[in-house]
Structure formats: structure tokens, C-alpha cells
Amino acid sequence: xxxxxxxxxxxxxxxxxxxxxxxxxxxxxxxxxxxxxxxxxxxxxxxxxxxxxxxxxxxxxxxxxxxxxxxxxxxxxxxxxxxxxxxxxxxxxxxxxxxxxxxxxxxxxxxxxxxxxxxxxxxxxxxxxxxxxxxxxxxxxxxxxxxxxxxxxxxxxxxxxxxxxxxxxxxxxxxxxxxxxxxxxxxxxxxxxxxxxxxxxxxxxxxxxxxxxxxxxxxxxxxxxxxxxxxxxxxxxxxxxxxxxxxxxxxxxxxxxxxxxxxxxxxxxxxxxxxxxxxxxxxxxxxxxxxxxxxxxxxxxxxxxxxxxxxxxxxxxxxxxxxxxxxxxxxxxxxxxxxxxxxxxxxxxxxxxxxxxxxxxxx
Amino acid sequence: xxxxxxxxxxxxxxxxxxxxxxxxxxxxxxxxxxxxxxxxxxxxxxxxxxxxxxxxxxxxxxxxxxxxxxxxxxxxxxxxxxxxxxxxxxxxxxxxxxxxxxxxxxxxxxxxxxxxxxxxxxxxxxxxxxxxxxxxxxxxxxxxxxxxxxxxxxxxxxxxxxxxxxxxxxxxxxxxxxxxxxxxxxxxxxxxxxxxxxxxxxxxxxxxxxxxxxxxxxxxxxxxxxxxxxxxxxxxxxxxxxxxxxxxxxxxxxxxxxxxxxxxxxxxxxxxxxxxxxxxxxxxxxxxxxxxxxxxxxxxxxxxxxxxxxxxxxxxxxxxxxxxxxxxxxxxxxxxxxxxxxxxxxxxxxxxxxxxxxxxxxx
Lengths: 363, 363
Prior knowledge:
Two copies of one chain form a homodimer. Chain A contains twelve helices and twelve strands.
């Protein structure tokens, strides 16, 4: 028990310190003081190598700053809130390609002109997350109205009519849905429903629908999670059907930051739910690998892209898909889970007599 | 001189034999006897791992078969011609998304239904190459009419009005043209104008325009060829402006089949033009690396994707971008250039007296 407490305590401190340096990195290098919003194409030392503003990452950074401001006393600082608000205003002004239409761009110029549009729902999802968090932090209803209206538009595109996304209808395109869609929607249901009974109730049926759709992607007797399945829940032929674990992956033999940070969260959550020490052991293993390979001791933050052997393949700290999101989110979530676990173990036992602290005083 | 002749002769035989096994691989594994056209998603041993038919590769394989049939006595076989014609018919029936509109799909199902459309000109370019070669081989004017009509459509999209390609007009998209466009058009000018005075004359101004546009991409005092430049021929900021050598690349540190096969052609051409032995030496170096790393001695053809250290990263023989094109085209072109070089050296000197063939008899 005491050994476990000690391990949890050590990780909590390590994770917390890492969160501090990661947040400091983004505060220092990513803010566009001129136009609002964030630079995310940052080199190893934080230097901006491209001024493009990717909408996913604008929304995610607003969300992250609000969340840190709201849930961590040490981040309850005007610096974070002001930057989140400036990011929110940038999105409100520029994210939509042709307002009042709700379709958002995928990437904007530094001053907010659309460069590319993806025919998917994801820019709009991160827009919604940002607006909902801004509302939670500021209480300004205009943010929440934006969030709920965009959410309703997304649900319409997914469940009623996708025409507005702009994808052509082609006779050879198989009727299929990537798991990313219900997964993303479910996380929005959770986001909007957090401490909000009216929205929890409004989106309850949608949440069930998402969970049902997600579970259909568990195939091959529970041994594989396939990204694309047929409309009646069967495995599809060809590469489309075999596709697993999509996202910001590049090559199959690379090691990327976000599956590692997600794995840290997942194993710590699983340990918290079950108490199985084998799961804590795996968290430990993944976290040790991650801290020793992805973390950059010289300039802070994490490298995103390693090769299979763990060598840095791209030394950028941010790009079109890596921004102020997966890493601080992982560290913040792990810090919270670790704190709750330590709390659950009860107060530290009082040592009854002075003893050699290296050998341990409580046995 | 004799040493050079010997080296050229050795390479000519090696390249010719390799061409035979490569062509045999595609003849054996890629033909769809049921629907016409070609499977290009082939595993290491030639097994089809996906039935999707990528239009670029359909057109390229038709072109390749016709060219081999037309220019190499040993490939002047009904098997190649019949497969090329079946591929041509498949394209005629299915490549266009909404006939009589000329926009072609990027990828089709096995039976020819469109799966995806790229908002570029490249499917149409390879369609044109295929039709022109089919005309050259069969003399059937319907093929040539298709080629010329499609060519005129492509030129219209590039030089007059791109609306038909379907790309949205976005205010933040910089006015730029990838070098791939004039490069591809110039190769069509060459293809259509080959032994055709009327078309040579028709496309002469276009050829000049392409060459002028291509040369604008040579930047930084001739030290870099940049893929994207501004409309007035200047380097663009950001990643877009720094982009070089696009194509079927995946990661910057990988070694791919096609830059190696293109380099073999380029250095042999350059040696043929200048006679500089240093260029033959580089051809030798690139070709040795390529034959020892990309070539698969067990199942034939070449691996497409190596990592930086030369280890096979993906052992497929074909996919969305690798088909019956770069490798046989390289080998066929190298064989032709080597033959011309050997021919230029004149007849082999007659050895005046019997001598030890290992020590050489002519000194």
C-alpha cells in the first residue's frame, strides 16, 4: 500500500511539473498578439515555421486553456483566460467559410482567411468544444449559443443530411461510417452535458446512439477495433475494412505522441476503475517510455514523431495536427486521476519513531 | 573505351533481364480477366490485397504495355496488346465520373464505379497518355479522338477556367501553381507530338508555356527546385513555399522506388548527352543501390518503400501510387539509352590473336 502510494505520489509530481513546462511553452511561443488565435507550427525551440492557423488546433487550445483555468488553481491566471478569449474571438470571426453557414475551414491564414476546407465535421466539433468551455469559464451566453447551434448543425449533418459537408455522392463509395464520427460526437455529448441537466437530457438519446455505433466497430470476436464497417455492422473488404487506429498517424512503424499520451490516460483510468496493479505497471511502462523518448529536456514540450526505434524523426513541437492539446490534456488528466487515487488511499500513516528514511520508517 | 563498352554492355543485359521479370510479374498477377483493367494493390508475392482500381495506374499500365509492344520486339506479343486494349476499354467505360463530362475519378471499384474524385488534372492526363498510345499501336482513331479531346479539356482547366475541377474558391488560398502541372502537361505535349507533325505544331506554344513555367520553379540562384511559387515567380512563405520533390513520398527520411528509378534515367541521359564519365559513375552508384535494395530476388519486381537505412518498410509491390509504370519504364528507357550508347561506340574491335580472356586480349 505504502509502496503504491509512493509510486503514485512520484508520478503525480513528475506529471504536474511536466504540465507546468508544457503550458509555459505554449504561453511563450504560440500566441498571435496581432490577430488573436494561436500559431501551432512551432519548431523545436518554439520558433514559428508557418503562420497558418489550423482550426482544429485553435479550438483545442481554447478548450485546453479554459479547462486549465477552470480546474487547476495554479492555472487560474488572466494570461490563460485572455488568450483563450482572443482565440475564441478569432474563431467566431473567421472559422466559418461563408457565414451565416456553419461549415468551418480546416486551415486559415494568419489573419483568418480560409485556405482549405475539409468535408468532415471535425473543425466544427473543436469549435463547439471551445465555445462550450468559454461559456463555462466566462458565463457569457453568446458562447453557449454558438456551441449549441453548432452542435445541432453537426448532428444534422451526421444523422439527417450530410449534403452541407460538400462530399460528392459517388456510386462506388461504400456505405460506411468511420468510428471517429460517433466517438467525436460522444465526447461532445459529454462536454456539453457536464454539470448541465438540460443538455444531458437533450443529448441522452444521441449519447446512446453514439455508444451503440462505436461498439459495432469492435470486430473479430472482440479482438480488433476496425475504423470502418458496413452499415449493418459487418467487416468490409479491402484496405478500408482492415483500417485500424486512424488519426494523425503517418507511417505504420512510427511512434507518435498522441497514442502514447492516450495510453497513459487509458491505463491510469483502468487502474483507477479496477485497482489491478498490472494496469498501474503498464501505465508506468508507457509513461517511462514517453517521458524518456518524447519529452525534450532542452526546449520543453514533446517531440511528436519518432521512428520505431524511438529516434526523433521530426523535431517540430507543433504542426497541422499537434498543438496545445494531447500533451497538456494527458498530463492534466493524469494529474487529476493520480490525485484522486492518492486521496482514496487516505491520509499518510504517521511514522511513530525517527528512522532511517532510506530504509523506510514504517515497517 | 573498351572498359566503358563493357560496363555499358553489362548494365544493358542486367537491365534487360530485370525488365523481363518485372513485365512477367504484372502479366501474371495484375490482370482482371472478369472486368478488364488492372489490379495494382499487389502484395509481395503478387497476391491482390485490394480490388480497388486507381485510374492513374490503369492509364499508366495501358501506356506501358503499348509502349513495350510498340518499341521492343520481344514484347510485341498479343498478350500485352490484348491486356492494354482491355484496360483501355475499362477506362473508356468507367473513368469519367459523369459522362459526357470529362472529369475522371481517382479510384474505381473493381467493376468500375467511382469511389473518389481528385480535384486535379492527373487522372485525365494518364487517361490521355493511355488513349494516345492505344491509337499509336492499333491505329483506331476513336482512341486518338479521346486523347485529343481530353487533352483540350485539360488545357482548358489549366489555362482558361479551373471551375470544372471542383475546387472551391477560397480567399486565403495563395495564387500558386504546383510545378507538377506544367511538368505533366509538357510530357503530354511530348507524347502527343511524337511522330505527329500536326499535333507538334498544335501544341508548340503550349510546350513553350510549360517550359517557361517549369523554369520559374528553379529558385535560390539555381540551387533549389521549389514545387510552389507565386504567380510572379517568387518564393512563397511557409511550408507551401519550401515544399520540394512532391509525389508519392511518404516521410522525408524514407527511400522510395520512383526517385531512384527516375535518377537512373536522368544520370544515364545526362551521360549520353555529355559523355562525362562522372555521370556514368553516378548512374552506376544509384543503379547498384537500387538493384541491391529495391529489387526482390524472391518474388520479382521491386519493393516501393524503404526506410533511410535501406530496410524494407512496406513489402507491397503495388498500391495506390505504385503500379506497372515507374519500374518497367525506367528499365525500358535505360535499356534503350544503353543500346544507343553501345551502338555509338561502333563495332567491338576484333581480337587479333587468341589470348587469356580474363587478362583481356586487346591490349
